[in-house]
What we know:
By secondary structure, the chain is mostly helical. It has helices spanning 16-23, 27-36, 54-69, 74-102, 110-116, 131-147; strands spanning 14-15, 43-45, 49-52. A hairpin with a 3-residue loop joins strand 2 (43-45) and strand 3 (49-52). Helix 3 packs across helix 4 (74-102).
Amino acid sequence: MEKILPSIPAKRYFTIGEVGDLCGVKPHVLRYWEQEFTQLRPMKRRGNRRYYQHHEVLMIRRIRDLLYDQGFTISGARNKMQELMDHERDKKRNGEVLLDGLENLDPQDDTSAQSAHADTHPVSTTGPQTWGQFRQELLSIRALLDTED
Length: 149
């Protein structure tokens, strides 16, 4: 029953009808899934109208795949979605642990760190030139990731 779904346009918000068309499910099914899958929380505005964001459309496609294509029950799909969410959270946590360690680096001590690794790690000409610049770039990426929650 695998159905080719249309590509998701570059929009910030999607109505329930648009999401239904993009995911191959009817709006009443989407409303039901909101009750069954706690991760699915579209923004509600005027008159309780639902507006879905891009990540929610992807989540709905995942749910649809689990239920319709892989044959999961609602309960099984709910458990699988929770596993996927936990896995994503763990991946993010592991990245944050790496970045937390970078906060302790001394940006003034760039030369000693570079010379210690000069033999085994060639210096890129397109990226940051010092450990301090590298640290700043990673911290700015971390800040961007933290604001997406």
